[in-house]
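seq as requested:
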Amino acid sequence: MVTLGENGPPEEVPSTPRFDVAYDEASSGTLIGQGGNADVYKITVERPDQAIPLAIKQPRIQQTLTKDIVERFTEETRVWKSLDSHDYIVNIVDADDTPVPWIAMEYMDGGTLGSLISEEQLPFSQAVWVGLCVTRAVRHAHRHGVAHHDIKPANVLFRQSDTGWMVPKVSDWGLARMMLEETNSVAGLSPQYAAPEQFDADTYGSPDDQTDIYQLGVLLYELFTGRPPFDGSPTDVMQSILTEDPKPPSSFAEINSSVDNFILKALERDKKDRYDSVVYIRDKLEEIWTSSSGASIGLINNPDDDIDYNTNQTDAKSENKSSRSVNNSENSKKDSDAGLWETNGSNRRSILKYGPLGLIALIGGRELLSNINLNNDTGGDSNQQQEDDVGDNANGGVTQDPPTVGLVYSLGGLGDNSFNDYAQSGLYDAADEFNADIYEAQPEDSEEVTELQREYANSTNPDFDLVSCVGFNQTDALKQTAPEFPNQEFMIVDSIVEEPNVASYVFKEHEGAFLMGVLAAEVCSSAISVGAGSASGDLVVGFIGGVSSPVIRRFQAGYEAGVEYVSSSMDVMVSYVGSYSDPMGGQQDARSMYQRGADVIFHAAGATGVGIFQAAQQEGGFALGTDIDQSVSEAEFADIILASMVKNIDTAVYECIRSFHTDDFQSGSIKALDLSSGGVECVYGQEIGPDIPTDIKASVFDAERAIIDGDISVPDGG
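struct tokens:
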């Protein structure tokens, strides 16, 4: 039987840090692999006191380097780098696009999973561990908006370790796209590992993150049985995937029937019947690992393994605050007379039931969220999400007790398919991955914003580690609340509050909006027709904001600058509706703009934007979304949404909670998330994005590179 080595999972994951590599060093080496339009070489670079082996990937020199090949390779590099450094993803050491695009990667000296299991199976515990590591890599990618779409044994590489088993890492993100930006091409796929939607998108929908869940199911099936679910000629395999149910893994190996059900759910043909998230696969593998090995694998060697979660821990935030239990079930055992907080058995998501004066749930008409439990019946057997490994916690730090977080949403509330919903996504990701206790509330007006901030800060049961304030409209309230509660840590998203106990996360919206302006101007100038929209070539575009504020004016300034960058003679119409929740007002303003010649309208108006999309369909124009990919969140308008300027608000919320979990939270800090950090980006629409001409996309890409390189300075409207 083949093996990964001895001594179990290693104490540390071997990795190669980033450093500068010159093309002269990268251009000479030994060919070690080929695939698609690229070659991979092994090189050795000399640095003080050490020789460092690297793998260099570049387009095949012997072929004609077409613009399409270069663009695809450049996109691969962008996607791969967006994943940052992760223990179970082959990391990029350096990359450049001159004189040809190339990537310098850490050298994986342990071969591929495909070659390792080609003749024999791994021991069961090692197979579970490999599956868990790969699943965590995919989970990390999904959190960053990336789907792999080609998960297979050949793309799982191993790195030797001095302290334990070889470590698996996922490579070859060449088929990856920012999630839901698909072309429905199956070129380069290995049929045995393809999902039904990669063969028949008309029946099963376009490839997306659910595709990775299917492919993980195939990988686990082979790890546990020694064979993929279907075998034979490519045509036979494709037909089987589209028409047959795979046999239970226990038909080929001595494994428990519960493992059968677990894997077969991931292999459902219809995406809606698979797991909602890769989190469920991760948790089930955690459960199998624990039961099969008698050990926890929260980290490689989990520093929390020795923590007694039934032991009361004293919160250091204030000596006057009561000690609280780290055990989630203990946190639900409140004093019924006090009655401030209530849970219903969910280990993380709770509701505010009584205010400070004992009032039921509605204070001045404020609606507070009902209890939400993501551990639903369709998601797997585990009732407790385990803490994620150091891979999903790639920035390091010492693991602390699970944090307790209260989040106050921005005015306009949830269901906006935009800003607030994205913040909630980051909150739930953190709850899943760090076992955080989370509490949520939706204020209806500015007065209630202040009340909620104070209620969270003043609470001792639970005792909040962090109060998260989402939206610039909480700025004034937090400037008053934070000094009143100096021992309480706060964060604010989309604004700056200069207090020593507040971490501020802001976005350079104007940089992303600049790209929207370039796209709008190029589409308008080209007079193209795609989907349900068309551009007349009248050289008029529009911008509609919700409420005039510094943030929204940054959107406007960047957009106008991007339009002018393409054409100084183009006219930009501007309107502010005065609300983030007035679709009818947005529709009226947008229809007026379209009827006066605007071809494309960019909005920064929250739920008001739905009315702008409606107007675009009615008038045959185009629209640009904001905050999240609105061609997905507002799918009924996907035929007119060219792209969305995505603000990774979820990342800000998630990273702040992660910093508490790893004990590297920085009070008083200001973090600016921009194009270079992936804080903002242009995401093309799912339906009509692939039909936007390549030369238009190239202009947007060139503008993005110029901003990142410092060649374009985008005005911020200040």
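The first helix runs from residue 23 to 26.
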